[in-house]
Design a protein that fits this description.
By secondary structure, the protein is of the alpha/beta class. The protein has a single domain, classed as P-loop containing nucleotide triphosphate hydrolases (Rossmann fold), CATH 3.40.50.300. Helix content is about 55%, strand content about 10%. Strand 3, helix 7 and strand 4 form a beta-alpha-beta unit. The protein is globular.
Length: about 230
């Protein structure tokens, strides 16, 4: 069997080929790293900021969006609190920012409040809570979604408080809630703990009012109107 040899006219040509191979390998590694960060973040859906219909966002969110897109808040370890009525784009906005952070090289963690508290309780029962804490406080960005939709017990409130406090003033956390701060006590059932958590989360943070009409309700009404028009035409 005759071995096929690759011949180059000069050393420069061989160097160029090798350089291209190495650059391609480096590019492939970057792509894989981005994919791995997005997968590890555990987003419930893949939503991009480009898919947001900015005109449907509440006014304050539209004003803050250009700054949030720069991810300076992640770099500075600042928090973002999105509080307001359901259906105004809170989850889409946070996932989009989380995806951008992953693509920019940041390590991201996403969970809803009920899911997060269940994880913490499981780690406590399995005596792995400390190892999780060490990992949790090192994430560049943590996104905790749907605070206020479901109430939780004293253990859950204390676990949530402890872990969010681990990151206060050092690493960035995004929280979405359908409740204003004054009503957080209704889910924590402890005025002292609620006041302490609110104080830590809001210090040097971006608090964004997300009250406004629900885009889901708008889409539902548009669909109902369309169906009604179809019936009339028939």
């Amino acid at each position: 069997m005759v071995q096929e040899e690759t011949s180059f006219k000069n050393p420069d040509e061989a160097f160029d080929v090798l350089l291209q191979v190495l650059l391609q390998e480096q590019s492939d590694r970057f792509v894989r790293a981005k994919q791995n960060r997005i997968r590890a973040a555990n987003f419930p859906q893949k939503k991009l900021l480009e898919e947001l219909v900015e005109e449907t966002l509440p006014e304050q969110a539209r004003q803050k969006l250009p700054h949030l897109k720069t991810l300076e808040f992640v770099k500075e370890g600042q928090n973002v609190i999105l509080a307001g009525s359901p259906g105004t784009g809170k989850t889409h906005l946070t996932i989009g920012l989380g995806m951008e952070a992953c693509l920019a090289g940041y390590k991201v963690f996403f969970a809803t409040v009920p899911s997060f508290i269940n994880q913490l309780k499981e780690h406590r029962s399995e005596r792995t809570l400390r190892s999780f804490e060490l990992k949790f406080e090192k994430y560049d960005l943590v996104i905790i979604d749907e605070l206020g939709y479901i109430s939780f017990d004293k253990e859950g409130a204390e676990l949530l408080f402890t872990h969010l406090s681990l990151r206060a003033g050092r690493k960035s956390t995004i929280i979405t809630s359908n409740l204003p701060f004054l009503k957080w006590q209704e889910i924590f059932h402890d005025p002292v703990l609620t006041a302490a958590l609110t104080d830590r989360l809001t210090h040097k943070s971006h608090v964004i009012n997300m009250n406004g009409p629900s885009y889901r309700m708008k889409e539902t009404q548009e669909w109902i109107n369309f169906e009604a028009n179809q019936v009339d035409q028939n």
